[in-house]
Amino acid sequence: MNIDELKNTWHEDNTDETPEISIDQRNKINLPLEKVRKNMRMEFWWVVGIFVFAFLVCSVCQPFKLQLYITVLIASMLIVTIFFYSKFFKLYNNISNTELKTSDSLKDLVTQLNLNKQYYLSYYISFAPFIVCEILIVLEFIPWPQPLSETKIAFILISSLVGGLFLLFVCGKFWFHRYYGRYIDHIESLLNELRK
């Protein structure tokens, strides 16, 4: 093969461009993206409200030791929430600034949305240690008619952890699918249509 043939082959390979997204297809994509953005804003404000309420409840707890434990626990939960919400804000900004002109940009968006799905489920499951701490605080400060045996304490802790993990996972999947997953599925189906 000589140099001219290589140049021709090179130019032929470079002429294949990424398919562009039509205006009609962009409009179909923008509707679910706007719903995702709206749900992200709504969820953010709910979380802010929940933490404000939790800290207000902490301020009236008695005795001081209980108030301190609950405040530290909720502050720790807030730190975990801030970490995950920083990831969600990156996605929110990417969705807001995305110009979907090619199928590659749409594919990149779908990848980001699916990655955020993993962050979302991780966020819910990361609350498992907080469940254990909450149960320990409850066991410590609730006056029991008789002291609990070590076996009962272990059973309560283990069953609470297993039940709590299961509940967090199921609630996280349900919540994600209801507010985000169906829109991501819609965007993925549009991407599949573009590939055809």
Describe the 3D structure.
This protein is mainly alpha-helical. Helix content is 84%, strand content 0%. The chain has six helices and no strands. The protein has helices at 3-14, 23-59, 64-96, 103-125, 128-141, 150-195. Helix 3 runs antiparallel to helix 4 and helix 4 runs antiparallel to helix 6. The chain is elongated, with a radius of gyration of 25 Å.
Mean pLDDT metric: 82
Largest sheet: none
Query: How big is the Rg?
Result: 25 Å
Alpha plus pi helix count: 6
Distance between the termini: 34 Å
Q: Count the E strands.
A: 0
Low-confidence sequence ranges: none
How much of the polypeptide forms β-strand, as a percent range?
Answer: under 5%
Question: Which range best describes the helical content: under 10%, 10-25%, 25-40%, 40-55%, 55-70% or over 70%?
Answer: over 70%
Question: Looking at the structure, what is the overall shape?
Answer: elongated
Based on helices, strands and strand pairing, what is the structural class?
mainly alpha
Order of helices and strands: HHHHHH
